[in-house]
Amino acid sequence: MAEDLRRLGAPQETIDAWTEALPIPTVDVLPECRPAVELFLACATQWRVAGMGGATGLDYSAVAVVARALGRRLGARLLDDVQVMEAAVLSVFAAARRP
Fold this sequence. Notes:
By secondary structure, this protein is mainly alpha-helical. The chain has a domain at 29-97. The chain is built from 5 helices and 2 strands, in the order αααββαα.
């Protein structure tokens, strides 16, 4: 986030304030999981949305395009791994909609 703010021309004091207010946790990713995690994160804007119902899942044709852009082939194993993360996120989205 700090780098994004810097690119947008934010003053250093703003960058420092956001960095302190929103610490970004680090997560260790096993080497064998890295391709799927990187692909999933790169697809952050590729969600299908159904009106007020929110996200319904990833647009798989877009996921394939993103995979190719990253130099990866979207095979069954990589797609399965991405779908596990997709299901987890959809579960969180659904829980957030519940009263």
